[in-house]
Amino acid sequence: MRFMGKIRARATWASATSLVLFLAACGGGNREIPIEAYSAQEIFEKGEFELGQGKRSADEAAQLFAEVERLYPYSEWAKRALIMQAYALYEAQEYEASRLSAQRYIDFYPADEDAAYAQYLLALTYYDQIDLVGRDQGLTFQALQSLRTLVEIYPDSEYTQSAILKFDLAFNHLAAKEMEIGRYYLKRNHHTAAINRFRVVVEDFQTTSHTAEALYRLMEAYLSLGLTAEAQTAGAILGYNFQSSEWYEDAYALLQGQGLEPDPVSTGWLRKIYRQMLKGEWL
After folding, report:
1. What's this protein's family per the entry (predicted)?
2. What per-residue confidence (pLDDT) applies to 28?
3. Which of 11, 32, 65, 258 could bond to 85 as cystine, CB 3.0-4.6 Å?
4. Domain range holding 268?
5. CA–CA dist 124, 143 (Å, integer)
């Protein structure tokens, strides 16, 4: 990202400049010079220097950027320090604190060129924590909302395409969670509970990679309950949209094994899905 590239470029230059500056300041003896003695630019550059040392120094960098805000609250350096503070906290994996700084930047400078990056950074503080399917999905919903906000408010930003990709991945993640729970219930013969989970995937996550399997699992659950019309309808939807997939091949074999064919004969919710599909309103 261009913003991160700017950070690395500035940090490289600041590494030399700030080190010379602070060594010179300490050259007169061991007396510690208070932070208030430095200018906003000097503190900011020291923060960039620390940030350039890697994640271990990110916390210290964030503290220095916070000092710029505290000591020079109405300066241009304070504005720059706020977005850098959010970034440094993100690098330190202090996600909640990073979100607060990023949100303050958005609130104070919504039209600034770095506002889009602040929104992207805010979304990343949620997104980076949803890597495990088994975790609480509240973070995933927050990531989706934050990514959607970026796309809607800053559609032309350089971060929009990345946000769209991450949105799709997070959306797929939610579907994966429903599938995981549905399979758990299905293996334990809790067929109604399993159907409820797979139905969520079919109705709410149709564009994800899990839809074909969800339809197949619905067939399995309905056949186990003796609800052949629903199973045939699920098979018909699967055949219409995923005929070349392995899930349809298995589904077709499963139905034929019981003397059935894929056919939208159900009068329930799956019949509604099938009609929407024919009208081009599904998927």
Report:
1. Belongs to the BamD family.
2. 47
3. 65
4. 189-283
5. 7
pLDDT recorded at residue 23: 42
Among residues 193, 186, 213, 189, the alpha carbon closest in space to that of 201 is found at: 213
Residue 236 covered by a domain: yes
Residue 238 contacts residue 218 (beta carbons within 8 Å): no
The residue among 56 and 222 whose pLDDT is bigger is 222
Q: Is the pLDDT of residue 4 over 60?
A: no
Q: What local confidence, expressed as pLDDT, does residue 56 receive?
A: 81
**238 domain-assigned:** yes
For 215, other C-beta atoms within 10 Å of its C-beta total 27
Average pLDDT, the chain: 88
For residues 248 and 215, what is the distance between their CA atoms, to the nearest angstrom?
A: 9
Q: Which residues contact 168 (CB under 8 A, 6 or more apart)?
A: none
What does each C-alpha distance from 49 to 87, 97, 246, 277 come to in angstroms?
14, 21, 54, 57
- pLDDT band with cut points at 50, 70 and 90 for residue 134: low
**Alpha-helical runs (H) found in 188-245:** 191-204, 211-224, 228-242
Let me know how long the chain is.
Answer: 283
Residue of 216, 221, 222, 210 whose CA lies nearest to 236:
216
Euclidean distance between CA atoms 249 and 178, whole angstroms: 23
Q: What is the mean pLDDT of residues 112-141?
A: 86
pLDDT band with cut points at 50, 70 and 90 for residue 11: very low
User: For residue 63, is it within any domain?
Assistant: no
d(CA 53, CA 109) in angstroms, rounded, equals 28
For residues 201 and 108, give the distance between their C-alpha atoms in angstroms, rounded to a whole number.
39
216 within domain boundaries: yes
DSSP string, 26-63: HTT-SPPPPGGGS-HHHHHHHHHHHHTT-GGGHHHHHH
Q: How many domains does the chain have?
A: 1
Q: Which residue has the tokens 């074999």?
A: 253
